[in-house]
Structures are given as C-alpha cells and as structure tokens.
C-alpha cells in the first residue's frame, strides 16, 4: 500500500498534469478518489516484444477533440489487470509505469491504458497515485494553474 512520503498538497478535483517522460506537457486530469488506479486515454494501442520483454506502443492526443500535439509512446508493460469501469464494464487493461508531474511534484504511477473517448477527461488520477502526498478538495479546480490553449499547427490539411 502506497503511503504519503511528503506533506499533503491540496489539489482540485480536476488538474492539468504533465507526463514529462512521454513527453506530454499538458493533459487535463480528473482526480478520482473512487478509482483505485490511474488511467490514460490512448489510441492505436499495440503490444510488441523488445529484447524478450513485453512492450506497448500507443498514441496520446492530449487535447480533447483534437489530434494536435499527438505523441506516440513506447513503454514496457508493467502488468495486466482486470478493471471495472464506473459503468460496471470489466476489461483487461495493460498497466505501464509513468511519471506524472502534478502541482510541481513528480510521482511515479501505475497507469492503465484504455479508451476514455466517452469520458470528459483524457486522464484519471486514482487514489493509489493520490496517496503519494495529495489531498483532493472537491470544491476547487486547477490549483496548479491552467494550461495554455493548444497550439494549432498551421495549414494542417487545409488548402
């Protein structure tokens, strides 16, 4: 069981977070104490073998309803878990280890990869991650500040 190793930092129920190793500078996340594990919305998820180990390759689109700033990521598979969604649907998910920068603190988190297209947030931060020194204030949002608007690349597919 993860224990807080630092003094607790207040966080809003939603925060902009960074995935520095991926690299994704900004992604909107819901902090959910009802969820055990963190999850990330991914596209084109495929497993492969590298040097005899299981790896996964996937795309992250950090901005809702936009492919701008899309990132292709390759990480070792940490685990596989059966996860039940908030709608009651159970699925087996790939788990990877990721560094998450939230409220100016870097933490290592187990993150499941899934399709969160129907959800309002590309990322969900669960209580295992929050136990690393965060307390959620459900009445507040974006205590770490807001991300800048996405930069639209010029002439993308338009003539």
From TrEMBL:
InterPro entries given in the database record: Asp_endopeptidase, Peptidase_aspartic_dom_sf
Position of the signal peptide: none
Pfam families: Zn_protease
Domain Retropepsin-like aspartic endopeptidase: 12-143
SUPFAM superfamilies tied to this protein: Acid proteases
Protein name: Retropepsin-like aspartic endopeptidase domain-containing protein
